[in-house]
Amino acid sequence: MADKPMLDDTEDVALDFGAEDELDRQRRFRHPVAVFFHLAFRVASILVYLLCGWFVDSFITSFVLIVILLSMDFWTVKNISGRLLVGLRWWNYVDEDGKSNWVYESRKGKLKGLTTAAESRIFWLSLVVCQVIWLVFFFGTLFTLKFKWFMVVIVGSLLNGANLYGYIRCKMGSRKKMTGVATNFLGAQVWRSMLATATASAAGKE
């Protein structure tokens, strides 16, 4: 008995593996350890500031612990999490003439794909939210006249604010340069127009 030929009712379907990989890349965490420590020190410093009065009677002990956590957070964000989570880095060096130079770097090209959207959101939200929290603490110490905590919130605002400012400069540096060029160009055009108007007016009076 001869075998009956099988009917071929299938059709070719194109699979876009690149789109799936890109979607997966945007969702997952590529650097979970860096994300953890990026959040751990800053959250711990805020919690210690809020709760230290319940567990520790010594202001000096609380002050030292909070400053240590803030310093660890500053170093981690500046040297590790910023580079891994958003591909940005800022640093300072002193040249041979003794002049201090600030460098703001941004990862570009194919290397930029090493970061994910989820990690980027966590990085920027934590920087902005924590800075707002420390500013609230700053005004809170003023309104409640708790001046002994004033130096603590100043340190928190300055260290977190320094990282926020540095990474904004890294992110917007090239755009800022273009804005400066455009501003200078428009200023020159306005100045020339004013000179032309003044010259024409002087010539008309003569």
Automatic annotation (TrEMBL):
Coiled-coil annotated spans: none
Cellular compartments annotated: Membrane
One BP term from GO: protein secretion
Membrane topology, from the record: Multi-pass membrane protein
InterPro entries hit by this protein: TVP23-like
GO cellular component assignments: Golgi membrane
UniProt keyword Cell inner membrane present: no
Transmembrane regions: 33-56, 62-80, 122-143, 149-168
Protein keywords: Membrane, Transmembrane, Transmembrane helix
Name of a matching Pfam family: DUF846
PANTHER family xrefs: GOLGI APPARATUS MEMBRANE PROTEIN TVP23 (PTHR13019), GOLGI APPARATUS MEMBRANE PROTEIN TVP23 HOMOLOG (PTHR13019:SF25)
Family under the similarity heading: Belongs to the TVP23 family.
Protein known as: Golgi apparatus membrane protein TVP23 homolog
Gene name of the record: LOC106177623
